[in-house]
Amino acid sequence: MSKSIFPEPIRNLPEADMPLNGVKAYLSQADNHQIIFMEFAEDVDLPEHEHESQWGIVLEGKIELVIDGEKRIYEKGDRYFIPKGVKHSGKIYAGYADITFFAQKDRYSRKQSS
Q: What φ, ψ does residue 53 adopt, rounded to 5°?
């Protein structure tokens, strides 16, 4: 992956264990939510799923999301919101980066050192 867009304090956060290829994700953990700083080196298809509410802001690249049956493309500077329990799917394109807030304290776990 090319140089990270995130500064050192973000890169020093624990990595999130995400079941997706080509993603580098840094985890900011709180008592009742998580904030994930993500960068994608390759295209990723997201199968339909649901969870607690999610809000994101696109820093680089683009993501195609289908939220409750409505398809939209979000690019740099765009924000999206997925309410709790709403089914969604999508495609993340290589070069995409965002900051995502999950209203869920255990959406992702810390990546274990190998």
A: -65, 155
Which regions of the chain are under pLDDT 70? 1-2, 114
Q: What's phi and psi for 22, nearest 5 deg?
A: 70, 20
Burial label, 7 (beta-carbon count in 10 A; 0-12, 13-18, 19+):
exposed
Under 8 Å between Cβ of 58 and 72: no
The whole-angstrom separation of Cα 47 and Cα 30 is 27
Both tokens assigned to 74: 């979000």
Residues 56 and 67: beta-carbon distance below 8 Å: no
Q: pTM of whole model > 0.85?
A: yes
